Please model this.
Amino acid sequence: MPVYRDEAIVLRTQRLGEADRIVIMLSKQHGQIRAVAKGVRKTSSRLGARVEPFSHVDLMLASGKSLEIISQAETIYSYGSQLALDYPKWTAGQAMLETAEKLTAEGTEPALQQFLLLVGGLRSLVSAEHDPGLILDAFILRSLAVAGYAPSFADCAICGEAGPHRAFSPSAGGMVCASCRPIGSASPRSQTVELMSALLTGDWQSADAAPTASRYESRTLTAAYLTWQIDRQLRSLRLVERT
Model:
């Protein structure tokens, strides 16, 4: 079987048989990969701890018929051991892993930008550079933009009329003018729209200064926008909202 090397972030795992696991990863060069880690559930396995969620690993993989096979894994950094010490960081990280999985697809072309965004987001959580909720919202908005679903926070998402506008519609693609406003659109605070725009563009000075009410509203709108685009609600976001 052809063998190749790559580095990846482990997104999640699932049991396979009595001793194996399927490992779902976002890799640097090959996009999303589903691979078998054989024997990792045995107590004698040295590979098991290296292919847990949040692990950044250097891999040797063999191409299989339906699943790749992990032949070797070396840990570059274990984000999980740091995030597990802080519940808000842990839940934000879980939502980031799930978002990355939903916005990439197995067996397609590389997703380098998504990979780099995920690595950067996990590093920010571990180093506590910003509030975990802000880091999560920034990651979701930027990941959506990379995937081709960038929301509009200035011009009307439907007709293009210059803003600012007062209504936000996930189905329409962001802020909308009064003429285009769909039924059920939200009416966020102007500070919330400014916050979401700052998170999308990386203006952390403005984002860090945002009031608590705008941060909560931003999280709600960001989650709604993501849910609309991927046509499902992330399970991990429910835990984040409880924090």
About this structure: The helical segments are 79-83, 87-102, 112-127, 132-146, 190-201, 204-208, 212-230, 235-242.
